[in-house]
C-alpha cells in the first residue's frame, strides 16, 4: 500500500479507536471473490488449473473503494471496518461468477448472493458493530471524503487475481 494510504488508514483507525479501543489495523489488504473454503490436498492443482482457465479472458480494470462500512463475519465473532467498492462492482461480479463455477466443480460453497465488495481496514474480536455504526461511521466517511488525494488513493487497478491455499499463493494476471 502507498504511504499516503497508510496515513489515511492511521487517521481512520485512530478515530475509530475512540469508539472501540481494541481495533487493530490490517497489515495486508485484499478484496475477496470467494468465501474461505477447505481444499483437499489432491484438489489444489486441478482447482488452480481450473481457476487459471476461467480467469484467462479477463482484462485489467479499475474500481473505486471509497465508502466506509462496518461488517461482521458470519458467526458475529469479528467486526471489520472496510472500504466498500462504489465503482467496478459489475466487473467484480463477473469474476465471482467464474470463481463460483470453479467452486461448484469441486462441490464447494459459492460466494454470497448479494456481495458487498470491500477492502477491510481494521478489525476487532466480537460483534461491536453497534458502537461503530452511526456517528463513528459518519466521522470516518468525513475523513475519507476530506483526505487529500483520496479519489486517487482509493482508485485501484486490478492487474491480477490471487488464490491462497495454505502458505502457497497462485497468481493469475489479467490481460
UniProtKB/TrEMBL annotation:
Pfam families: HVSL (PF09749). 3'-5' RNA exonuclease that trims the 3' end of oligo(U) and oligo(A) tracts of the pre-U6 small nuclear RNA (snRNA) molecule, leading to the formation of a mature U6 snRNA 3' end-terminated with a 2',3'-cyclic phosphate. Participates in the U6 snRNA 3' end processing that prevents U6 snRNA degradation. In addition also removes uridines from the 3' end of U6atac snRNA and possibly the vault RNA VTRNA1-1. The lineage of its organism: Eukaryota, Metazoa, Chordata, Craniata, Vertebrata. Keywords: Hydrolase, Lyase, Nuclease, Nucleus. The gene is Usb1. GO terms for biological process: U6 snRNA 3'-end processing. InterPro entries: Cyclic_Pdiesterase, Usb1. It comes from Fregetta grallaria. It catalyses: a 3'-end uridylyl-uridine-RNA = a 3'-end 2',3'-cyclophospho-uridine-RNA + uridine; a 3'-end uridylyl-adenosine-RNA = a 3'-end 2',3'-cyclophospho-uridine-RNA + adenosine. This is U6 snRNA phosphodiesterase 1. One of its GO terms (molecular function) is 3'-5'-RNA exonuclease activity. It comes from the Eukaryota. Coiled coil: none annotated. One of its GO terms (cellular component) is nucleus.
Amino acid at each position: 500500500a502507498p504511504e499516503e494510504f497508510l496515513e489515511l488508514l492511521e487517521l481512520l483507525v485512530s478515530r475509530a479507536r475512540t469508539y472501540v479501543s481494541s481495533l487493530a489495523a490490517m497489515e495486508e489488504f485484499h478484496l475477496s471473490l470467494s468465501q474461505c473454503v477447505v481444499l483437499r490436498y489432491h484438489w489444489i492443482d486441478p482447482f488452480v488449473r481450473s481457476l487459471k482457465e476461467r480467469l484467462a479472458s479477463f482484462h485489467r480494470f479499475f474500481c473505486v473503494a471509497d465508502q466506509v462500512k462496518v461488517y461482521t463475519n458470519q458467526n458475529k465473532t469479528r467486526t471489520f471496518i472496510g472500504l466498500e467498492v462504489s465503482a467496478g462492482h459489475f466487473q467484480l461480479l463477473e469474476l465471482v461468477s467464474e470463481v463460483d463455477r470453479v467452486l461448484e466443480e469441486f462441490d464447494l460453497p459459492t460466494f454470497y448472493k448479494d456481495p458487498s465488495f470491500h477492502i477491510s481496514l481494521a478489525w476487532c474480536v466480537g460483534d461491536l458493530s453497534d458502537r461503530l455504526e452511526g456517528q463513528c461511521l459518519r466521522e470516518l466517511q468525513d475523513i475519507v471524503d476530506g483526505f487529500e488525494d483520496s479519489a486517487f488513493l482509493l482508485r485501484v487497478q486490478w492487474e491480477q487475481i490471487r488464490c491462497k491455499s495454505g502458505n502457497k499463493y497462485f497468481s493469475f494476471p489479467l490481460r
